[in-house]
Amino acid sequence: MARRRKPALGAWLYFSLAFATGGYFTFAAVQGSFGVFRRAEITAESRVLETELSKLNVEVARMENLTLRLSDEYLDLDLLDEQARSVLGLLRSDELVIR
């Protein structure tokens, strides 16, 4: 009768260490600092920041336009009158204020 031989302890240790190392690298590839999930988070965050940047660019363009219209080279009298009324609270003598 043939006797079955148990695998040596070294083989068990080698395969368990190889399995643990493979599991660790798989986990790191999926959920690590540079993993798949982190990449998806960064992509979503970049989309949000790009939309915010486009909104800020529109606001900057608007402010540059208003600044140009109040500069010495190009003075928009209607805008100057509007700003004086809103910021300083100025009125003409022939106007009535209804609150």
Automatic annotation (TrEMBL):
Upper classification of the organism: Bacteria, Pseudomonadati, Pseudomonadota, Alphaproteobacteria, Rhodobacterales
Keywords, comma-separated and alphabetical: Coiled coil
Tree of life domain: Bacteria
Name of the protein: Septum formation initiator family protein
Regions annotated as coiled coil: 39-66
Alphabetical list of InterPro entries matching this protein: FtsL/DivIC (IPR007060)
